[in-house]
Design goal:
With 1359 residues, this protein is mainly beta. Helices cover 2% and strands 51% of the residues. A hairpin with a 3-residue loop joins strand 38 and strand 39.
């Protein structure tokens, strides 16, 4: 329906709105409202009022044709669908109505007269006079968009044309282009340049409604630029390239340098009177000292001035001014012509050859084929290797081969805007195909089965393209047939739309082609009066849906991550209100956005049943700049940006990282020189080229590709470099043998990449995006001048060939589409170039030709032989059941004098050994595998994709390279995919061969790549199996048993809700981080003194056989009070010591935190409550020099409890699995008092969450004291370790003397406590998190565990 009651539109429907179908007795018309929801839910968006878009389905009961008119129509109604005689029409009606209430309708005109109808009463409203009731009070900062703030306007409808205008205080504004809740907008601000001092203390945001520019809304917000008088530290900058006085356009140029001690000043680059902010321009270092690169492009003649600028005392200060001059290049005239050279007629197609000539081949743009005036084929490029048949790259003669189905003679087609006519008709087809039905069936997480029922009268269905607007969403063609024929059939494709690179979008336009070039279009979201279906779990990206679907909670498994030396494996958890748990989700991180693949940091996830949240695992690279990593969460098709999420959820939504030496700078050339020179006179064999040096400081150079061409030879000389073969300077040698040709060599392409995927790229004659590897240099060409040039200008020829194939090739067979073709080339005067490997081409439909590169077989005197291995694509050449001959060509061979040759589809039939390539389609359909889902060595579920799977059972056979063959039955089969469950674990990664069998036969053998099983990022806690306590959870006053876990009521705490917290201010030890308590209390009228001690004892390196290789006892610590001067919830104390071993000092740091009030921390993906009076340890260990990669570490911690009672006394010790978490525990008990230690069996190791183990070592037990040691086993690591044990002291309801394994002493005077007098006491609770530093001191990690001082009171035990 047109309107939704949840969003008031002030519209009063008449009878039409009360009934879905309304029949007007006086005119016999039925009208149905087909308007999509919300599209008219907006304020006035034109100076004249509101533009409305209404879809009306109008039908005449009497079968009478009609037309529709109205005074408010913007233009004539658009017919979306209609019957043959126009007695039913689905019309798109566009109105502009004035502000106020208007009766919206139309007049229906027939041969017998006019009839007016009213559709609805619509109230067009201007935006409210007062836009906002509460101004934002601060500017936030994002390293992607700079300073921004969020406005929440009092809008109940969509504001279509919100604009920013120049404010009077020299700030520039932009509105962040993202859909949000109704009335919410993010505004970004940058200062404008000024030579005079300005008051930046306030920012006046000035906004306008584009439909009413006479009214301006001004909002003053406290400024974000600080009034700082201090000078910055050193600033260095230069402009690149700088080796010439003037440069030709198009030009990429760079202003680069460094800043030390920016001291909080706002800094930017001034260029062309514009402020270019620092965001995404910092490429190295840290906030105190960083490098920057500003990249610019110039396409016109210009004199450009630049300067580094900072704002001090509210005044812009320019330093290090630079300038650059550009001029346009000389005008080049490209000769370009085409001719229809020949045609060949086969059963179903005509193969035509069009010859082109060009004087500047390398500058030709791509072209397209228009067939019978319909755009029916994708763009093609005049590929030199597959098309050149004579000449060279300066004066080229080219073939363009097209296969045109034989319908509607004469057929009209155009290439390069040249029209051609071909009398190739076998039959006539002038009617377009029809879409009879379209369905989109979801299989969860945007995995969609598209099924289309299509018919055509003569030529048959060729292709269907589904569009959202003008963006292609997906396409199907004749190869996707599942039953019927291409005349009347069903076509199907399985698509995984959980893909940000090519996502599902609402389909509103469809283009349908047949083989005759007839085109049928369906527009505006309908086909044949039917709405084009959508994927059920897809959520349209409109304001109203952001009200329904909101992120309600969000957190990261790891945070405050040190990326100075190593990346991190992490996870994000979040909930969305009203979310479909079957939906997939994705997250995109914006890291090094200028010079990184935009999809490199995209990760996918879904609903995590155990976490009861959406979760996505992801990787963050090392050397990311200090700050918050910005991101965007995609819940298709809603997008939640981190800059918006932060305004609602604050600190927990931030992914916080820091690095001492960030690196967003790609590898670049630091030297470039031609050798032996850039101008060379030759008359014999010669070697020449370039020497280069590549620089990449922190991430490290990984890979490089450099391609060189000449003006006569576009066949690249390719040079690849890796870090493994790094010898600087890199050498790019080109050797010219047995030839003497004047030509100019130049670098065509450069690609350099570091180990974090940051790349630089250069393309000849193109404006570079981001930072170019030639940032500091102008390209250097090398001119070869031939002293005595050769007189040979004749190209070699194809002399003979052999084709080893079946007489008829079954192109819809999974196994019978392959054959080999061998051929020889000879020349009369020059040797054959073995560097120029020829290409073999087999024609398909239109430009869909199969092309493959040959391999060299042998070389003779002025001759060479080559071989092409050909495997035609499935149904290549068309769906014809009659035999069809395909054309063939061989192109791109050359002699050493760069005379290129090719043999086209006509001429090749005269070559000795030629035989026709005859194809057909068999009626016996057997399965054909095209791809599979991913599979790891862990095994699991596997989905196989392909064709002709049918809908009955299928069997999958897996053939390992060695070992047993596995056969698995399918659990679900559809025509185009089959699902197999419980694939067994495969011990070896690599390629495995699979084969699918159904009742019609076996498929092709397909190779799948088995990847290593990923290291699990999150280790979920083991859920408790039952509630504890007698009675359960301490009884109804203390707590409730929910989901097998006690939920305690304040003030009760503990696993069984029998404990209470007591506030004890700790005594800080200034010599070591050991924690002890000497606590006295009154119990049954007697003084009880308890002493506990938890200490960090030693660090041991353990050999693989379990023996100790090295042990170090901690003795000396450096103490520092690091408590913040700003009042916070905790006090912090730092302890440091070094472990000298293996030639390095392993630094151990302990940060002790005391929490005043209740708080929450996170560790290893879980959240923990911190009680008042909590002490928390953070222990970091810098890299350790392991003697073997098989060795491990042990961190030894000791604990003890002692009582000074003179009564009969017993001690007891036990350990096991903690009942409420994935942890081990140890309990040391003296009489009623226990020291309880819990050791979580997970750790953060090298920025990953991994499983660890704990080893308990029982110590001495006496009747009044007991002690224990625990070894926390740390796997071999490089940089970082974090662990999280905790301790508690309590009184137990069951005495130690009641345990059979207790140790007891002789009694003295007096008696022990009675059960009814017991109170619970927890003293000196210790929660200790252990963190290892990445090469440097690291104690900023905020989410470990704690030391707690508690008191427990037990409920009296029932008698």
């Amino acid at each position: 329906m047109l309107f939704n009651v949840n969003f008031t539109l002030n519209v009063k429907f008449l009878l039409l709105s009360l009934f879905l179908f309304v029949k007007f007795a006086d005119s016999n018309f039925v009208i149905k409202d087909r308007t999509p929801p919300y599209i008219n839910d907006k304020y006035a968006d034109t100076v004249s009022g509101c533009s409305l878009e209404v879809y009306a389905d109008i039908s005449s009961d009497d079968g009478v044709a009609f037309t529709v008119t109205d005074q408010y129509f913007i233009e004539s109604p658009e017919v979306v669908s209609s019957t043959g005689n126009n007695d039913r029409q689905l019309l798109k009606l566009q109105y502009i109505v004035p502000i106020g209430t208007t009766l919206v309708g139309f007049k229906i005109t027939t041969d017998t007269g006019d009839s007016p109808y009213t559709l609805l009463e619509y109230k067009c409203e201007a935006p409210p006079v007062d836009w906002i009731s509460s101004l934002p009070q601060q500017w936030l900062y994002s390293n992607q968009v700079g300073y921004y703030t969020k406005f929440k306007f009092n809008f109940s409808k969509r504001m279509v044309n919100l604009l920013t205008s120049l404010a009077p205080n020299n700030f520039n504004f932009k509105i962040f282009k993202t859909t949000m809740k109704m009335g919410e907008f993010i505004v970004m601000a940058t200062p404008a340049f000024s030579n005079t001092a300005l008051d930046f203390s306030s920012v006046i945001v000035q906004l306008q409604d584009g439909a009413n520019m006479t009214v301006t809304h001004k909002y003053a917000i406290p400024g974000f630029i600080r009034n700082i008088s201090v000078l910055p530290g050193s600033i260095h900058a230069d402009l690149y390239p700088n080796d010439k006085t003037s440069y030709l356009t198009p030009l990429s140029y760079y202003y680069a340098g460094s800043v030390e001690k920016p001291n909080g000043l706002y800094m930017y680059c001034w260029n062309k009177q514009k402020v270019e902010p620092m965001e995404n321009r910092m490429v190295s270092g840290n906030p105190d000292k960083y490098g920057f690169v500003f990249d610019f492009t110039e396409t016109q003649a210009a004199y450009t001035q630049l300067a580094f600028t900072y704002i001090r005392n509210y005044q812009s200060n320019q330093v290090i001014g630079k300038s650059i001059t550009t001029t346009p290049p000389p005008i080049q005239i490209f000769g370009y012509g085409s001719t229809l050279a020949s045609s060949q007629y086969f059963n179903n197609v005509a193969v035509i050859r069009i010859t082109f000539s060009s004087t500047q081949y390398l500058n030709l743009a791509p072209d397209s084929l228009f067939y019978n005036y319909a755009y029916i084929s994708d763009q093609f490029y005049l590929n030199p290797f597959t098309r050149i048949y004579s000449g060279n790259y300066k004066n080229a003669f080219l073939d363009v081969i097209a296969s045109i189905p034989r319908f509607n003679g004469p057929s009209i087609f155009s290439i390069n805007q040249n029209l051609y006519s071909l009398n190739n008709a076998d039959s006539t087809d002038t009617l377009p195909p029809q879409l009879n039905n379209l369905s989109l069936k979801s299989f969860g997480k945007l995995r969609v089965l598209i099924t289309a029922s299509i018919s055509d009268d003569v030529s048959g269905f060729y292709r269907m393209v589904l569009y959202s607007g003008t963006t292609e969403v997906q396409h199907l063609n004749y190869t996707d047939i599942i039953d019927g024929t291409y005349i009347v059939g069903n076509f199907q494709k399985y698509v995984d739309f959980l893909n940000i690179k090519k996502p599902y979008l609402p389909i509103d336009n469809i283009a349908l082609y047949d083989f005759a070039g007839n085109l049928k279009t369906y527009t505006n979201g309908f086909y044949n009066f039917n709405p084009i279906p959508t994927v059920p779990e897809f959520i349209t990206n409109i304001e109203q849906n952001y009200e329904i679907y909101q992120i309600t909670s969000i957190r990261f498994a790891l945070n405050d991550i040190d990326l100075s030396n190593i990346g991190a494996q992490n996870a994000i958890y979040f909930n969305i209100s009203n979310a479909n748990r079957q939906s997939g989700v994705a997250i995109t991180f914006f890291i090094n956005v200028r010079n990184t693949d935009p999809y490199k940091y995209v990760f996918y996830g879904g609903w995590n049943q155990q976490m009861n949240m959406f979760s996505i695992n992801f990787d963050i690279p090392s050397h990311v700049f200090t700050g918050n990593v910005e991101y965007s969460i995609w819940y298709p098709d809603l997008e939640f940006t981190s800059i918006d999420i932060y305004t609602t959820h604050g600190f927990s939504s931030l992914l916080r990282v820091f690095s001492q030496n960030a690196d967003a700078m790609p590898p670049i050339f630091t030297s470039l020189a031609a050798f032996p020179s850039d101008v060379i006179n030759i008359n014999t064999d010669i070697e020449f080229g370039w020497d280069i040096t590549v620089s990449d400081d922190n991430n490290g150079f990984k890979y490089g590709l450099i391609s060189v061409i000449s003006d006569l030879d576009g066949y690249e000389h390719n040079f690849t470099y890796t870090n493994e073969n790094k010898v600087e300077p890199y050498y790019m040698p080109i050797r010219i043998n047995q030839t003497c040709i004047t030509q100019i060599f130049q670098i065509k392409y450069i690609y350099l990449e570091d180990y974090n995927g940051v790349f630089s790229e250069y393309k000849l004659n193109s404006v570079n995006q981001g930072i170019s590897p030639l940032m500091k240099f102008s390209p250097i060409s090398i001119n070869l001048n031939c002293v005595s040039p050769s007189m040979d200008t004749i190209a070699p020829v194809l002399s003979n060939m052999t084709i080893n194939k079946e007489n008829i090739i079954l192109v819809n067979s999974p196994t019978k589409r392959a054959f080999n073709m061998s051929f020889c080339i000879r020349d009369a005067d020059s040797e054959i170039s073995t560097r120029h490997l020829p290409y073999c081409m087999v024609t398909g439909l239109f430009f869909d030709h199969y092309v493959t590169r040959s391999t060299l077989v042998n070389v003779g005197s002025k001759s060479a032989c080559f071989k092409c291995k050909i495997e035609l694509p499935y149904m290549h050449g068309g769906p014809w059941t009659l035999t069809t001959t395909l054309g063939m060509g061989i192109y791109g061979y050359s002699d050493l004098q760069l005379n290129f040759g090719g043999t086209g589809t006509n001429d090749i039939t005269e070559i000795s050994g030629y035989s026709n390539i005859v194809v057909t389609n068999t009626n016996l359909l057997v399965p054909y595998i095209t791809s599979t889902s991913t599979l790891t060595t862990d095994g699991g579920d596997l989905t196989v994709y392909g064709k002709n799977f049918g809908d009955t059972n299928a069997t999958l056979t897996i053939y390992p390279a060695v070992g047993n063959v596995y056969k698995l039955p399918s659990v679900f089969v559809n025509n185009v995919f089959a699902v197999f469950k419980n694939v067994p674990s495969l011990t070896l990664k690599g390629k495995y061969k699979i084969e699918l069998y159904i009742n019609t036969g076996s498929s092709n053998q397909f190779f799948i790549v088995i990847s290593p099983a990923p290291v699990p990022i999150i280790i979920p806690s083991t859920p408790p199996t039952q509630c504890l306590g007698t009675p359960l959870c301490g009884g109804p006053n203390n707590g409730d048993c929910i989901a097998n876990k006690c939920q305690c009521k304040d003030p009760w705490i503990g696993n069984d809700c029998l404990s209470q917290n007591i506030i004890i201010k700790p005594i800080i030890n200034t010599t070591s981080p050991d924690t002890g308590n000497d606590y006295k209390t009154d119990l049954d009228g007697k003084d009880v003194s308890l002493k506990t001690l938890v200490s960090i004892v030693s660090l041991n390196e353990i050999n693989k056989d379990g023996s100790i290789n090295f042990s170090y006892n901690f003795t000396n610590w450096k103490y520092t009070n690091v408590t913040s001067a700003t009042p916070t919830n905790n006090k912090e104390y730092l302890y440091e010591t070094d472990v000298p071993y293996g030639g390095i000092n392993t630094t151990v740091k302990v940060t002790l935190k005391y929490f005043h009030n209740k708080d929450t921390v996170e560790f290893a993906g879980e959240t923990f409550d911190i009680l008042p009076s909590t002490l928390k340890y953070q222990i970091s260990i810098s890299p350790f020099k392991f003697q073997s990669s098989l060795n491990t570490l042990q961190l030894i911690m000791a604990s003890s409890i002692q009582s000074d009672t003179n009564d009969y006394s017993c001690t007891y010790q036990e350990q096991g699995n903690s009942p409420d978490s994935d942890a081990d525990y140890v309990k040391l008990q003296v009489n009623e008092h226990s020291l309880y230690g819990r050791f979580i069996k997970r750790a953060i190791i090298d920025n990953r969450i991994q499983t660890i183990s704990n080893t308990f070592q029982n110590g001495e037990s006496q009747s009044t004291q007991i002690q224990n040691q625990v070894a926390i086993n740390i796997p071999n690591f490089q940089y970082l370790v974090i662990m999280d044990p905790d301790y508690s002291v309590l009184i137990d309801s069951q005495k130690a003397s009641d345990q059979s394994t207790s140790t007891c002493g002789q009694p003295t005077e007096g008696k022990g406590l009675t059960k009814t007098q017991l109170i619970g006491i927890i003293i000196g609770s210790v929660a200790i998190g252990i963190i290892a530093i990445i090469l440097i001191s690291y104690f900023l990690y905020k989410k470990s565990s704690s030391v707690r001082v508690l008191m427990i009171k037990l409920k009296p035990i029932p008698k």
